[in-house]
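look at this:
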Amino acid sequence: MALGGVEQGRETLRVLAEFGSKLEVGGDEPYILRLTLFVFATATLAASSWYFSRQALLLEPPPRPVTLAQERLFRWLPRVLGGLGFAVPAAALAAAAGQYPAWQRP
């Protein structure tokens, strides 16, 4: 959220996603390395948020009898948090790409 919400964060995402030349900031690293590290970090964020939210819910499961709403929350909250680990960076990248004119977008 912080990367997509401020101008410096969007600039960081643009540098991450663009090919760029060697003279520009961030142009020293190969593009595929930057992209691979970003995807790995995003997958790690999503997996850890899913796993640790699931484990936190298993430490103190809701007492019986469980209502249908509690059961859905227990099942779907970790899944939603894991999905947000992918959706939030994707939305930030979309916000950063939205600053380009339509004729410059790939």
Observations:
- The chain has one domain: 2-104.
- The two ends are 24 Å apart (CA to CA).
